[in-house]
Amino acid sequence: MAESRRSLWKRAFWALRHPFRAYRILRRRLVYRMALCRLRGRLRRLEVNSDEWLVLQERLGGVGGELGQALRAVFYAHSLGRCGAGCRFQPGVVMILPQRIELGDDVRMNRGVYIVAQEKVSIGNHVLIGPYVHINSGNHRFEDPTVPIVDQGKALEPIIIEDDVWIAAHAVITAGSRIGRGSVVMAGAVVSGTVEPYSVVGGVPARLVRRRGERPAMA
């Protein structure tokens, strides 16, 4: 109790010595709280994945700084099928059909990540998703050359990304893929299938480069 009082007096003394800085900090906190309250109120009246929801997602995707991080955290915590603790979303993240997306704890999505959950997309804990990664759990069918591709429908399969995975920039994860725990998907790779745990994969289509813990092969 005495310690908290001392801390309170220190803050008050600092505010008296630096009134303009204290005012700016207080104003910023009030703006944050008002913005978060307004967003929560709006989300209560909003249908997830509606046109209005999609417009709001785009607008929030353009908000930078700490405020943007806080607003997107509230937005996706409300909208996703599951959103664990400590998830962070950089500007430009887009999720389509978010009610089919489940995130574990401490998932980090970098700028421009694009997820289309035509079927369930499950992402584990402590996953890093790099800039402009594309994840889509649906593919167009194209087997019959006598029928236009647009009329052949889609093949939908869930995507599972296990714990402690890093998906680097511009990678593509296609329907039916399963990325094992502790794996790394190199930049620009296209994953279509299963990645074994603790693997490093790269290329188009993605193939095993090495196992984590092994030294890279010398040229």
Write a concise keyword list for the protein shown above.
219 residues, alpha/beta, UDP N-Acetylglucosamine Acyltransferase, domain 1, 6-stranded parallel beta sheet, 4 helices, 31% helix, 24% strand
Percentage of residues assigned to helices: 25-40%
How large is the share of residues in beta strands? 15-25%
Q: Can you say what the CATH homologous superfamily of one domain is?
A: Hexapeptide repeat proteins
Q: Write down the CATH topology of one domain.
A: UDP N-Acetylglucosamine Acyltransferase, domain 1
What's the Cα radius of gyration?
A: 22 Å
Distance between the first and last residues' Cα: 64 Å
User: Which CATH top level class of one domain fits?
Assistant: Mainly Beta
Helical region count? 4
- Structural class based on helices, strands and sheet pairing: alpha/beta
Q: How many strands in all?
A: 20
- CATH level-two architecture of one domain: 3 Solenoid
Give the mean pLDDT: 86
H/E element sequence: HHHHEEEEEEEEEEEEEEEEEEEE
Give the overall form.
globular
Structural write-up:
By secondary structure, the chain is of the alpha/beta class. The protein has a domain at about 80-210: Hexapeptide repeat proteins (UDP N-Acetylglucosamine Acyltransferase, domain 1, 3 Solenoid). Helix content is about 30%, strand content about 25%. It is built from four helices and 20 strands. It has helices at about 1-15, 20-45, 50-60, 65-80, and strands at about 80-85, 90, 95, 100-105, 110, 115, 120-125, 130, 135, 140, 155, 160, 165, 170-175, 180, 185, 190, 195, 200, 205-210. It has a seven-stranded mixed beta sheet with strand order 2-5-8-13-16-19-20. A six-stranded parallel beta sheet has the order 1-4-7-12-15-18, with helices on one face. β19 (about 200) and β20 form a beta hairpin. The termini are far apart.
